[in-house]
Design brief:
It is built from 5 helices and 4 strands, in the order H-H-H-E-H-E-E-E-H. It is of the alpha+beta class. The protein folds into 2 domains: 102 residues, no CATH class; 70 residues. A 4-stranded mixed sheet has the order 2-1-3-4. Helix 1 packs antiparallel against helix 3 and helix 1 crosses helix 5. The N and C termini lie far apart (55 Å).
């Protein structure tokens, strides 16, 4: 018989793989939005330089630092918006329901139909509908917004999408920062 730990590890790996597929789609959206944000930042920077030049002012190192700080802040806000938009598109897509349904089926195949599903507050309707299809009990909400957990006795397989996306967001921010540094 397969150990509980290996079941949990395998299911977590399946969840990560499914999210990686969603990540690829989100990257396409992010790449497009990032190019647009860079164009906007360049326009803002050029405009600021023209304003300074037309006033006959000299850019001092303090002004340059402040300008760069403002650009970094604007870029960070833009990235946050891009990531939030990509996540919202994912949540509203048919692919999200398919992804959640696949994760649920995998977990139930491992733990059995006598497991209980705890849903995230924002996925209540979706999880309840999918749980009903599987003829299992859904309860909640848990202390998370997106995704679900499958619980049987002392075993919990977590599919908390919020946490998985936070990890991916950190990776995305690193990638974006590396790209910005590389293109400067």
């Amino acid at each position: 018989m397969e150990s509980i730990k290996s079941v949990i590890e395998r299911e977590n790996e399946r969840a990560r793989q499914t999210l990686q597929d969603a990540y690829k789609k989100a990257m396409e959206i992010i790449d497009k939005a990032e190019a647009e944000a860079k164009k906007e930042a360049d326009v803002m920077w050029d405009s600021a330089k023209r304003d300074v030049s037309s006033e006959g002012l000299t850019i001092t190192s303090r002004a340059e630092i402040e300008g760069k700080r403002m650009l970094i802040t604007a870029e960070d806000e833009k990235q946050t918006g891009i990531i939030a938009e990509a996540a919202e598109r994912l949540y509203k897509s048919k692919e999200y329901e398919t992804m959640i349904g696949g994760m649920m089926s995998n977990a139930l195949n491992e733990l059995g139909k006598d497991a209980v599903i705890v849903y995230g507050s924002d996925d209540e309707d979706l999880i309840k509908r999918l749980a009903k299809k599987h003829r299992i009990k859904a309860q909640g909400p848990g202390d998370f917004r997106r995704g679900f957990e499958v619980i049987k006795g002392d075993i919990t397989i977590s599919y908390r999408i919020d946490e998985m996306l936070k990890d991916m967001e950190r990776d995305l921010r690193r990638l974006m920062a590396d790209e910005v540094r590389g293109s400067s």
